[in-house]
Structure formats: C-alpha cells, structure tokens
Amino acid sequence: MPDLLLELFSEEIPARMQAKAAEDLRRMVTDKLVAEGLVYEGAKAFATPRRLALTVHGIPARQPDLKTERRGPKIGAADAAVQGFLKATGLTSLDEAKIQRDPKGDFYIALIEKPGRDAIDVLAEILPVIIRTFPWPKSMRWGARSGKPGSLSWVRPLHAIIATFGLETEEPDVVKFSVDGIEAGQTTYGHRFMAPSAISVRRFEDYEAKLKAVKVILDPQARKDIIFADAKELTFAQGFELVEDQVLLDEVSGLVEWPVVMMGSFEAEYLAIPDEVIRATIRNNQKCFVVKDPKTGKLTNKFVLTANIEAPDGGKTIVAGNERVIRPRLSDAKFFYETDLKTKLEDRLPKFEQIVFHEKLGTQAARIKRIECLAAEIAPLVGADVAKATRAAHLAKADLLTEVVGEFPEVQGLMGKYYALAQGEDASVAAACEEHYKPQGPADRVPTDPVSVAVALADKLDTLVGFWAIDEKPTGSKDPYALRRAALGVIRLIAENALRLSIMKMAASALAGLSLKPADAQKLPSDLLAFFADRLKVQLREQGARHDLDDAVFALGGQDDLLMIVRRVEALGKFLETDDGKNLLAGIKRASNILGIEEKKDKRSFDGAPDAALYGLGEEKALAKAIGEVKAEASAAVAKEDFAAAMSAMAKLRPPVDAFFEKVRVNDEDAKVRENRLKLLNEIRSATRAVADFSKIQD
Q1: Residue 237 burial (CB < 10 Å; 0-12/13-18/19+)?
Q2: H/E element, 186
Q3: CB–CB of 521/514 below 8 Å?
Q4: Contacts for 430 with CB less than 8 Å, ≥ 6 apart
Q5: What are phi and psi of 535, to 5 degrees?
Q6: Which of 600, 587, 623 is nearest to 699 (CA)?
Q7: Contact by Cβ (8 Å): 538, 488
Q8: 3-state helix, strand, coil in the chain (%, to 5)
Q9: How far is CA 68 from CA 37, 85, 107, 111, 298, in A?
Q10: Which DSSP string corresponds to 16-68?
Q11: What is the C-alpha to C-alpha distance for residues 404 and 328, in angstroms, rounded to an integer?
C-alpha cells in the first residue's frame, strides 16, 4: 500500500515547541485518515529547527465504498414526507426503495451507495485544513504573496511543503494542494549554511538519506545521541566528566540540524563561585554543558558547547565567541555573589514588610513569623532543636532578596544555605534554608535532618492552611498555588521519616497563626483532611499499592495518622499475597455478601453478640471461639502498631471460617438459629475491621 511523506519547511521553530508540534502533526493527520476510512499501518513524525516531517505508511490507495440504509416514511404516508425522503436520498421514485416489514407498520428503506475516493484526493483535501488549523502555542502572519496579504498563521514563515504519495516500487505522485500560495511539491532545502541549495525527494527513505547528505539529521533522538556521545567522549579524553542534563540536551538538540560538539574554557578564578551558580550562568545564557573533575566532584573551568556547523577553522572562532559571552556573565555572577556575602541574611528581612505574599494573607514578613512559630511547635514532635528550627525558619526565605537568586531563581534555598554557612550559622540551620522547599515533586529528595523537616512541614502547612482558609482551593486541573504538591510534600516528609503527627492538630496551629477575622477563622473545612487522604492515595498508588487496598484501609477512618495508614496498606498487601490471606478474603467476602442479602431482605442489621446457647454445631462454637481470640490478638497488635502481627492473627480465622461454610447452613428454618448465625457472620466482619474493611477489597 502507498506511503505518505509530508514536510513543512519554515524559518527556525523554537526548540521548546518542536516535540509537541511533531506529535500534533502525527495525531492530526492520522486521525483524519481514520475518520475518512483510510486505516494506515504506521506513522512517525520528526522535527528539526527548520522542519516538521511525517511519514505514514500502509495507507489504502482508495477509500472503501460505503453502503448505508436510510429509513423513510411508512407506506401510505403523506406525499410531502415521501417527496422529502426521495430528495434526501437521491431516489427518483419509490420503486427504487425497499420495503421493511415492522410490527408498527411497513416502511420504505433507501439503500445509499457512496463510492470511495482515491486516497490522494482525500489527502489533498485534509492536509491544507490541518496546516491552516495547526495548534501552535504562538504563531505569526507575514508578508504579502502575489500582491495579497498573507493569510496563513504559522509559528514562523513557511517556505515550502513536500507532500508525496505512492507505492515503494513506483514513482510517487505529488499531493496537489496549496496553502497561502505555497504549492506542495517534492522540493526541500539542506543545512542553512553548509548546503542551502534545493533538493528534490520522492519518499521517506530517499528524503532522510538526502537530508543527511546535505548536513541535516532529521531524527531528534539521533541528534541527542550524537551530542551526548560526543560530549562524553570529548570530556573523557581530557580527564574530565560531563555533568549530564537531560532537559538541556533536549533543548540543544532542537537548536541544531547538524550537531558539532566542542569544548571551551573560562578563567579558574570564577570557580570561587558556587558550582550551581556557574552551571546556571553557563546553562541559561549559552545553553552549554558544564564539566566536573571526577576525582573531586567539583566543576572545572571547562564547558561543552554544541555548534550547528562544521567550521573551516575547526571551530576556534565559535569557541572563542562562546568564551567571550560566558566570561562577562560569570563576572556578573561573581560580583553578585560577593556583593550578597557583604549583607547578613537577617539584615535583609525588613524588606519583606513591603512585599505582599497574598492580599488576604498579609506580607512575606508576616508569613515568616507564622512559619517560625509553627516550626517551633513542630520541632519537639520531630526530634528537632527548637532554637535551631526557629532560627532556620527566621532565615529560610531571606535569600529571595539576594542578587544571585534575583538573577537565577532556580537556586533559591541553595544560596540561602551557602550564605548561612558563610555567616557562621549552625550546619542544620544552613541545611534547612535549602531543604525547607523539599520535596518539590515525587522524585525529589526528602529531608531527613530534624530541623529541615520541622521547617519544611511548617512552610507547607502554612501555605495549605492559609489558602484553604481563604477558599483558594485547587479546582479541577487548576492549582495556581501548588497546593497538591505541598500536600504531597507533607505526606512524604511524614511517611519517609516515620513521623507520628496529627495533620489536623498541626493545621489548627497553623490556622491560629493567621490574622483572620473570627468568621474567616471558621473557614478551614473538614475536607482539608480529605484532600490529604486523596493525595496519600495518589502517592500509595504511584508506589504500586492497589487502589482497593487503599479504600479498605481508608474506610476505617483515622486519616489524620498518615504513617499508620501507610503501614496498614503495606501489611495488608503482603498478607493478601499469601494463600491464607487470599482464602480468608474469600470467606470474609462470602460472609459479607450473605449478610448484605439478608439485611436487605429483613430491612435490619444483625448487630449484637450471638447467643452461645443457640450454637448447635461444633463448627459454630469453633468459629465463635476463634473470633474471640483473633479479635483480642489483632486489636492488641494494632494497638502496638504491629500490623504484620495483626494480619497473622487474622490468618487464624481461615480454618474455622472454611469449616463453618462447609458444614453450617446459615439460613436455618428456625428463625432464632438463623438470626444467631447471621450475628456470628457479623462478628467475622467486625473482627476483621480491626485491620481493614475487607468488603472493599476486590477478589
């Protein structure tokens, strides 16, 4: 079957837009093909700085013929209805219609045949529409064509379109269409500087090979691989190690069509600046990678750049140009850093009196005072020194007013640690200045130093409770204040440090620190705890926990103790992987199902202790005895928070439960015996609720 080759050649496309644009092109074309009945075999899209390309193979040469039936009026219907039916279906008379027998009456049926069109004609129709409606984040219109203003909105001026369609064994046809005066054809252009002449292509294999011959690597992944491999080899050859940066690699590969890796250097005096500042300076300003000494782990005065040309002088001019730009940038960074060191962190704090955190939550200065108080309250609960936690909370935000953080916001917190150490602060206080922002995502490191933990919890809880109190909660996909991330941070801090903390008690303390009117102080709704529960469920599922196990534990309540929930879910998951766990689950669910049916039938519950005098079978007595023993043992284990032991106790129920269902008829003819046996089943359900609600667990 024929293949499609499509290329849209333009001025430089911003690197950040390329990957999504390639995917959008693939999706839009293939969706339209399928909608037109042209089911393809495969498709792949590509992007370079100057082109989007797509190959779709295995497209049928022609649409299938369509046959549809359209139901018309009843036999004997009014003439107006009959004429409308004939006009809508294209029939000349009712003789061309079929008659369908129906209990409600006989109806006319029109068989409408729509012959399929050649796929190339369908493509000529859909491709211009896709190009004109392409969803660029930003686009532009430019110059006049043939005396008329340009009508196409595109990310950058579009210069040429390739659109060919045909079998591999034959010369492909050009899909004939035009967009804003640009005729689709078979012509594209090579590298802007090294091979700018026009080239003619036929199909994808020919297209990709010819582009490579004119210094264009079409596949973004191939360009990344070249840059990464060459950069590692170049640094290794000089005894250094590349500092890997996947985000930067993605961006740089979108800036070049023919990557050429080179190494530059800068004066060693700039190594007095913190490594992170050097990296931010070189990365942000010149899109270059930094290099470290593998022996010390510290940065060297080298950097790796990626050029888009094989220069006649071997790249000396390009390297010198990058060095010439980087040098003053590093000089500025060094000046900022040295200037910052002249002012103590606490001396910057008065400026926060003039900076509003939120109009309803006061200034940054007021927020810092709240975090100080809350950190001091949390410190003893997490084993932190109160004075150190208070001091760390006092200084933690001060680096936001420094010159370096103003220039490179991504190093906030980190610079606070450097400046705190430079002015002689305790190591834990300095570490908390950096770590109180953590964790900022599911993959971010969780602080373990008690001082950092106290300040991090205080910071996040102040944010959550504050915005909850003023009713600025996340809605749908909108979360402008990153409250979901803050809640997940609190959960990870508690769970990964094995902390026993009450969320609601800490939230109440945070609320007390807010300067709200009495009426506003009541705005902290109970659903804040539910919000934490939802975030904890997300976290547990990302760690591989089954959603039904989450539900089984959450059904018991107690969401205020996050660590206990995590431990219960872990223990329950391990228990249900055993044969005892699986079989006991089956027995418990059988008991729950019987109870549910009978409770619905009798419109009552079967609470209360069974009457031992009504036990007529040994299996009843054995089950009752086992339930009593297991309930006591499991409850004691839960009280000690030994959930593994509680699950082991539950496992002892398996033999008597199995025996009960094998020998005992629950719905006995004697109403009192029946009721007593149903109460015994309820005892099974009650006993197992010490560890989880087993009715929520799927088989």
Answers
A1: exposed
A2: none
A3: yes
A4: 416, 417, 418, 420, 421
A5: -65, -35
A6: 587
A7: yes
A8: 55, 15, 30
A9: 14, 15, 16, 6, 73
A10: HHHHHHHHHHHHHHHHHHHHTT---SEEEEEEETTEEEEEEE---SBPPPEEE
A11: 15
Query: 336-390 pLDDT, tens per residue?
Result: 999 999 999 999 999 999 999 999 899 999 999 999 999 999 999 999 999 999 9
Token pair of 482, please? 């990153």
Cβ neighbours of residue 190 under 8 Å, at least 6 residues apart?
A: 196, 197, 199, 211, 213, 214, 215, 216
Tokens of 599: 């409770």
CA angle, residues 688, 693, 696, in degrees to nearest 5:
140
Q: DSSP string of 594-615? A: HHHHHHHHHTS---S---GGG-
Alpha-helix runs per DSSP H in 408-502: 414-422, 427-435, 450-469, 483-496
What the block records as the tokens of 386 is 């109160």
Rg (the chain; Cα; Å): 36
Q: Span 631-647, mean pLDDT?
A: 85
Tokens of 527: 């659903």
Where does residue 424 rank: exposed (0-12), middle (13-18), buried (19+ CB within 10 A)? exposed
State mean pLDDT over 629-648: 86
CA 112, CA 456: separation in Å to the nearest integer?
70
- The helix (run of H) or strand (run of E) holding residue 530 is helix 527-542
Residue 629 to residues 177, 427, 607, Cα–Cα distance (Å): 82, 53, 19
Q: What are phi and psi of 686, to 5 degrees?
A: -65, -40
What does the alpha-carbon distance between residue 382 and residue 453 come to, in Å, rounded to a whole number? Answer: 7
DSSP alpha helix (H) spans, 36-176:
79-89, 119-132
**Would you say 207 and 201 are in contact if contact means Cβ atoms under 8 Å apart?**
yes
* SS3 category, 10: strand
pLDDT tens by residue, 339-349? 999 999 999 99
Which tokens sit at 522? 């009541």
555 φ/ψ angles, rounded to the nearest 5 degrees = -65, -20
